[in-house]
């Protein structure tokens, strides 16, 4: 049998009451015996004889017994009240932040359990706060991959908030590092791509300056090459300016735009270039109108790049398809060509700056490696996204935009 179950605070209070009652009875009995002895020998002092004669000895004994019982109960319960006072003081200290409090566990009753619980609570709080402090120290040192364990209670919310803050801070620092690396890569790429045509231009101009050509025909040949390199250099600078303009938050001026009519007009403008390449441009639209809110001047730049790429690299397929439709609340535009496929290993990088699938082919066609990066930046600035897919049958560039509504105009304007 577990005797600790019977050693409770109620039993202790009952024992105090019994102890007080027994002590009171003993004292009252002794006092009665003393009074009788004094009465026999006529040693009672006034007013005791008068009280005994007029009130009676039993009422006096009962009254005296109650008073003695109360006094005895207060005397015998002093240890209990002191213990309760210690618990109260400990709770006040814990409330003020002094978590190194250790209460003595004096008994196995409810008060002992309370004291043990307070000690355990203070210890758990102290250890958890120490873990949080160590976690904050690690965050201050830049170690964002060491999250604070999230337990139960209010401090768990604090720990969770700190972990979220650390994660956001880590992402911000990583984004800043990526931005710095991106800037350095951009400078490196621009330097390389500017230096190559500029070196050729300077080389041919040096030949002309030093009269190292044989005749006027060779001179015109050198001038023509220098001119073509200068045109390539100008295109690179224009593309670079366009890319930095869009990525630096160039203001978007959106308006209601029908993609079907917009792309039909663009296709007509590309008819001479398509005929020269032997390519037929075909437009398919599942609906008559697809309305979006967009900046037409910027969007035409991205579609021109996609269409010119499709004609340039899909000439072998003899056809370029522009498919327009709606799906799941989005406007969809697909540029499809049937030329040489893009290698699977190159697909994830086609929208990167200065990335060329084939370096030699890009040089022949005059590509700067910024065209698709500009396309991606413009489409994302309109709240859309673009993907590339390629297999042995076709290559598809798919752009998706939110369908137009009056609220989209406000959102695009404010986000720009």
Record the strand order, biggest sheet. Answer: 2-4-5-7-6
In CATH, the homologous superfamily of the domain at 252-415 goes by the name: Histidine kinase-like ATPase, C-terminal domain
| Helix and strand run | HHHHHHHEHHEEHEEHHEEH
- Number of helical runs? 13
Distance between the termini: 78 Å
- Enter the CATH topology name of the domain at 252-415: Heat Shock Protein 90
Please report the total strand number as a whole number. 7
Report mean pLDDT, rounded to a whole number: 77
Structural shape? rod-shaped
Instruction: Let me know the largest β-sheet.
Output: 5 strands, mixed
Describe this protein's structure.
The structure is a single chain. 19% of the residues are buried. Among the domains are: 3-128, no CATH class; 252-415, Histidine kinase-like ATPase, C-terminal domain (Heat Shock Protein 90), CATH 3.30.565. It is an alpha+beta fold. Helix 5 packs parallel to helix 6 and helix 8 crosses helix 10 (296-313). The chain has helices at 9-40, 48-54, 57-76, 78-95, 110-140, 154-209, 216-247, 259-269, 271-277, 296-313, 359-365, 371-381, 406-415, and strands at 255-258, 280-285, 291-294, 319-327, 330-337, 385-390, 395-402. The model is unreliable at 359-366 and 406-416 (pLDDT under 50). It contains 13 helices and 7 strands. It is a multi-pass membrane protein.
């Amino acid at each position: 049998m577990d005797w600790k179950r019977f050693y409770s605070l109620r039993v202790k209070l009952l024992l105090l009451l019994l102890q007080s009652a027994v002590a009171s009875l003993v004292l009252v009995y002794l006092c009665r015996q003393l009074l009788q002895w004094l009465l026999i020998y006529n040693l009672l002092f006034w007013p005791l004889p008068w009280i005994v004669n007029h009130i009676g000895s039993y009422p006096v004994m009962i009254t005296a017994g109650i008073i003695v019982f109360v006094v005895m109960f207060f005397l015998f319960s002093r240890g209990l009240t002191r213990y309760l006072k210690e618990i109260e003081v400990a709770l006040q200290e814990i409330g003020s932040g002094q978590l190194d409090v250790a209460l003595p566990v004096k008994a196995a009753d409810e008060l002992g359990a309370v004291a043990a619980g307070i000690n355990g609570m203070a210890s758990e709080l102290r250890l958890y706060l120490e873990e949080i402090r160590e976690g904050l120290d690690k965050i201050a040192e830049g170690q964002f991959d060491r999250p604070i364990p999230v337990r139960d209670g209010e401090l768990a919310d604090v720990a969770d908030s700190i972990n979220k803050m650390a994660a956001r801070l880590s992402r911000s620092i990583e984004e800043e590092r990526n931005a710095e690396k991106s800037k350095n890569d951009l400078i490196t790429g621009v330097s390389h791509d500017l230096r190559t045509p500029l070196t050729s231009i300077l080389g041919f101009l040096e030949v002309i300056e030093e009269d190292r050509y044989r005749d006027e025909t060779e001179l015109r040949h050198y001038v023509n090459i220098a001119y073509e390199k200068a045109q390539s250099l100008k295109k690179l600078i224009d593309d670079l300016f366009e890319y930095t303009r869009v990525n630096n938050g160039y203001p978007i001026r959106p308006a209601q735009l029908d993609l079907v009519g917009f792309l039909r007009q663009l296709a007509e403008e590309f008819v001479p270039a398509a005929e020269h390449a032997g390519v037929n441009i075909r437009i398919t639209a599942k609906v008559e109108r697809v309305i979006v809110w967009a900046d037409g001047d910027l969007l035409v730049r991205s579609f021109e790049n996609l269409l010119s790429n499709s004609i340039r690299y899909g000439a072998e397929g003899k056809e370029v398809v522009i498919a327009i439709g709606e799906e799941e609340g989005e406007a969809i535009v697909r540029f499809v060509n049937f030329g040489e496929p893009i290698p699977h290993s190159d697909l994830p990088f086609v929208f990167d700056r200065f990335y060329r699938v084939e370096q030699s082919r890009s040089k022949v066609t005059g590509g700067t490696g910024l065209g698709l990066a500009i396309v991606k930046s413009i489409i994302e600035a309109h709240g859309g996204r673009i993907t590339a897919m390629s297999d042995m049958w076709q290559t598809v560039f798919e752009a998706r935009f939110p369908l137009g509504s009056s609220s989209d105009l406000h959102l695009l304007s404010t986000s720009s």
